[in-house]
Amino acid sequence: MWSRRNETSLEDVGEVEEIPLLDKPFPPSSAKDSAARTSVEPVEEDGSLDEGDALYPTEGEKHGPHALRRVGGKISWPAYLIGFVELCERFSYNGTAAVFINFLQRPLPPGSVTGVNPNGTPGALGLGTNAATAITQFNTLWVYVIPLFGAYIADSRLGRFRTVCYSVGIAMAGHILMILCTFPSIITRPPLALTVFIGALLVMGLGTGGFKSNISPLVAEQQRGPARMTVVRDAQGERVILDPAITTARIYMYFYLMINIGAGLGQISMTVAEKYLGFWAAFTLPTILFCLCPFVLWYGHGIYTKSPPEGSVLPSFLRILHHTFSPLLTRSLRQAKAAWRNPQFWERAKPSMYAGHRPRWMAYDDAFVEEVRRGVLACAVFVFYPLYWISFNQMNNNMTSQAATMTTNGVPNDVINNTNPIALMVLIPVFDAYIYPALRRSGYNFTPLKRIFAGFMVVSSAMVWAGILQWYVYTTSPCGYGANDPACGPSPMSVWWQTGAYVLIAISEIFASITGLEYAFTKAPTSMKSVVMALFLSTSAFASVIGEVLNPLAGDPLLIWNYVVCATLSFVAGIIFWISFRKLDADEDQLNEIGHQGHNSEEVAEEEAEDSDV
């Protein structure tokens, strides 16, 4: 039996921070395994382990003065395949969306039926600024609402892999409809072209939404190796803890790298394609690359880890929430506060609390209550994210406008923000190979909550950088505080001074955005991973709504205040975030363990007895 107490030694271990894992996952944890592992010998005072010690680390090995160093495993080949699918999808979506404004806002250049305008700005439908902005904002809202529907379908009906496959097919149909908009017989008739374009947005958004909420948990499911922390030996013979949470973090770092490679290349190449080839090329070329997605999904079909749908857990989930939070629904603030601080707050929903008179509707076990608690905690963490995205979103609008008021030396102002994905391409491997391992070697546990807090602080500093830069633009511009006047010449300041803000935003993404994906996957209940991931993604939509409130500041002479407000909101949100959730930091390992242990004590005892007979 593989769960007998022993110490694992891996002969083929490579670098300590990249331990190669088994080709196949370890057998799933069962109640029997859990029982065997909880009966372990205590760690010696010097931190050493005898040959008969447990496969899983003790508390002394995980924490304390003799804690073993933690390492992550290598990323599996199936995870890279899923990452490549994401790269193609982001190239196709971002490359196409990058030209939406020009396609909608500006009319066809004289004599053109493709939108080509080498000496000016390309155009097609000529709807004007307001209509173009309204349609693109609707598209953003649409693609962040649909993930909730796609997540529910995956968790309850189809499973994540099948939902991703169907979503790719739906998005492909949307891409084809968008190409139809560029046919000369359609693009020269704006009402017809607009009808086809909006239909394409709806169909493509339906596929993109179903894809976004499921591809992120699907890539993390490709992790190979033990599902719980395990004691192994590295190449030098040192005992270390192989921590699956670190492996998951590494997977999401390189997954995010794929996102930025695809998005960056798509945006740069398609803005050039629309200008010199026409909108037919800007819509067709991303579709051709997107055609690789079905082939890669089919190629890895036999090696992907696919979680089957667990059925709808929504009724039980809602009953638990009602039963748990109902004591808070009182007019007495004192009683509500006492109920919230009651140590039995979640215990009251556990069936074990009703021995002998369990309500008929409690068709779940204690472990499911713990999973729901973990999911609620994860969603509570995400409440603060819109105030992070408010600062993050500045690089896609106000910072692009800021670049237009500076000296660019011929570089298009809407290309400068690609400094951000380029920085991520460099920084992600650096953080994975050097910075994070160095922190672990020093004994500092840079937990997800600490990383998220750091992300808020860094993005706030990026807004401070942008605000100071805006002050210098105003003081050096020929038009002073009217620097954005189209008739005004640029400030003599080089646009590359913006690089500092873009690099800081990239670092904040490594801390907050990537960790948010990791947190949504590791802390969500097994049966609700796609739903929790969709809720995390939907925080961007809330940020867009809040951003509309700040629009009055997005113009001269108030742009300095725009950056000051964004910096303040992100900074204060980060402080409140840490104050609210710092106590969870100590429970990080326990939260990650939920779902990997047995759920029924009677079953544990029965299987343990059977094991002893064998």
From TrEMBL:
<feature type="compositionally biased region" description="Acidic residues">
    <location>
        <begin position="9"/>
        <end position="20"/>
    </location>
</feature>
<keyword id="KW-0472">Membrane</keyword>
<feature type="transmembrane region" description="Helical">
    <location>
        <begin position="560"/>
        <end position="581"/>
    </location>
</feature>
<keyword id="KW-0813">Transport</keyword>
<feature type="transmembrane region" description="Helical">
    <location>
        <begin position="192"/>
        <end position="211"/>
    </location>
</feature>
<feature type="transmembrane region" description="Helical">
    <location>
        <begin position="533"/>
        <end position="554"/>
    </location>
</feature>
<feature type="region of interest" description="Disordered">
    <location>
        <begin position="595"/>
        <end position="614"/>
    </location>
</feature>
<dbReference type="Pfam" id="PF00854">
    <property type="entry name" value="PTR2"/>
</dbReference>
<feature type="region of interest" description="Disordered">
    <location>
        <begin position="1"/>
        <end position="62"/>
    </location>
</feature>
<dbReference type="GO" id="GO:0071916">
    <property type="term" value="F:dipeptide transmembrane transporter activity"/>
</dbReference>
<keyword id="KW-1133">Transmembrane helix</keyword>
<dbReference type="GO" id="GO:0005886">
    <property type="term" value="C:plasma membrane"/>
</dbReference>
<comment type="similarity">
    <text>Belongs to the major facilitator superfamily. Proton-dependent oligopeptide transporter (POT/PTR) (TC 2.A.17) family.</text>
</comment>
<feature type="transmembrane region" description="Helical">
    <location>
        <begin position="422"/>
        <end position="439"/>
    </location>
</feature>
<protein>
    <submittedName>
        <fullName>PTR2-domain-containing protein</fullName>
    </submittedName>
</protein>
<dbReference type="InterPro" id="IPR000109">
    <property type="entry name" value="POT_fam"/>
</dbReference>
<feature type="transmembrane region" description="Helical">
    <location>
        <begin position="451"/>
        <end position="473"/>
    </location>
</feature>
<feature type="transmembrane region" description="Helical">
    <location>
        <begin position="251"/>
        <end position="270"/>
    </location>
</feature>
<feature type="transmembrane region" description="Helical">
    <location>
        <begin position="164"/>
        <end position="186"/>
    </location>
</feature>
<feature type="transmembrane region" description="Helical">
    <location>
        <begin position="501"/>
        <end position="521"/>
    </location>
</feature>
<keyword id="KW-0812">Transmembrane</keyword>
<feature type="compositionally biased region" description="Acidic residues">
    <location>
        <begin position="42"/>
        <end position="53"/>
    </location>
</feature>
<feature type="transmembrane region" description="Helical">
    <location>
        <begin position="276"/>
        <end position="299"/>
    </location>
</feature>
<feature type="compositionally biased region" description="Acidic residues">
    <location>
        <begin position="603"/>
        <end position="614"/>
    </location>
</feature>
<dbReference type="InterPro" id="IPR036259">
    <property type="entry name" value="MFS_trans_sf"/>
</dbReference>
<feature type="transmembrane region" description="Helical">
    <location>
        <begin position="375"/>
        <end position="392"/>
    </location>
</feature>
